[in-house]
Amino acid sequence: MNKEELVAQVSRKTNVPRKVADTVVNGLFETISDALGNEEKVTIVGFGTFDVRERGERTGRNPRTGELIQIQSRKVATFVAGKGLKERLIEE
């Protein structure tokens, strides 16, 4: 499912115009992105938790040359599914 399909589903399930659903979905994504940018954890009970973690420096390999390279540490966004989502996935 891409973003347009998500907006369409939200519009149908909430019985609001597509333009309103688009605004809500964009607002949700922007809010989550802003929180992660401030290194805040976002927990949606029953769905999951978005968080920022530090990925340590490590040695990698250039796929073209096979040469060993040093990959710098960086921050990455993570998502851990909540209990409700996990249970829903097991059911289906």
Structure characterization notes:
- The chain is an alpha+beta fold and 92 residues long.
- It has a single domain, classed as HU Protein, Chain A (Irregular).
- It contains 3 helices and 5 strands, in the order H-H-E-E-E-E-E-H.
- It has helices at 3-14, 18-37, 83-91; strands at residues 42-44, 48-55, 58-61, 68-71, 74-81.
- Strands 1-2-5 form a 3-stranded antiparallel β-sheet.
- Strand 3 (58-61) and strand 4 form a beta hairpin.
- Helix 1 (3-14) crosses helix 2.
- 1% of the residues are buried.
Ordered list of secondary-structure elements with their pairings:
Blueprint lengths: L2 H12 L3 H20 L4 E3 L3 E8 L2 E4 L6 E4 L2 E8 L1 H9 L1
Antiparallel strand pairs: 1-2, 2-5, 3-4
Helix pairs in contact: 1-2
